[in-house]
Each structure stands twice: as structure tokens, then as C-alpha cells.
Design a protein that fits this description.
Layout: H1 2-13, E1 16-21, H2 23-27, H3 29-41, E2 46-51, H4 59-65, E3 71-72, H5 78-95
């Protein structure tokens, strides 16, 4: 339970979640729980599924991943796919605004 709580706390502070999609992740109840937490508690979180195995997505994960763009490390070289992932994450971090540790300042009107 402590691990689950720590993950949820970390996820709440995150701006991006990379899901390394494999047969193990596909069958994992904790992964489904983490995606559910991300989808319902953090609408601004960008989820990036990174597919490393050619497996059909389970219905429990499809609910949360059917509308997001996937990166595929199966159809291209792993090195090229990782480079694409790094570029995408870098771009998203530049575009998403202040980090969770940087408070957004709101003007005070008098």
C-alpha cells in the first residue's frame, strides 16, 4: 500500500507519464490502477504509451489509452524509437508550462 501511495503522490506531481507497454504491463492490475488514477485525477497529465512488444491491448487499458498517440518500438529500431520518445518528452516538457515545484502566480487585484 505504501508503494501505491508513493506512486500516486509522484503521479500527482508529474506532467508526463510514459507507459512502457509490454505483455507484462498489459496484464498488470497495478498498471491499470495507475492509468485510472492518472485519467481521473490529473486531466493535464500527458500519457505516452511506448510499445515494446506486439500484443493486443487489454480492455482494462484500452479505456484509458484509445485516444492517445502511441510510440512504437516494435515496427522500427529500438534506438530510433527511444530517440523519438526523448524528443517527444522534451517537447512536451517545454510546452506544458511551469513545473509542479514552480507555483503559478496569480495577480492580486485591489
Amino acid at each position: 500500500a505504501a508503494c501505491s501511495s508513493s506512486f500516486a503522490t509522484g503521479l500527482d506531481a508529474a506532467r508526463i507519464m510514459v507507459l512502457v507497454f509490454s505483455s507484462a504491463a498489459n496484464a498488470s492490475r497495478p498498471v491499470a490502477n495507475e492509468l485510472e488514477h492518472a485519467a481521473f485525477n490529473k486531466a493535464s497529465l500527458k500519457i505516452i504509451p511506448f510499445r515494446i512488444e506486439d500484443v493486443a491491448i487489454s480492455s482494462s487499458l484500452a479505456l484509458f489509452l484509445k485516444t492517445v498517440q502511441w510510440l512504437d518500438a516494435v515496427q522500427k529500431s529500438r534506438k530510433a524509437a527511444i530517440r523519438e520518445l526523448v524528443e517527444l518528452v522534451s517537447q512536451l516538457l517545454e510546452d506544458t508550462g511551469p513545473t509542479p515545484s514552480e507555483p503559478q502566480l496569480h495577480p492580486v487585484w485591489k
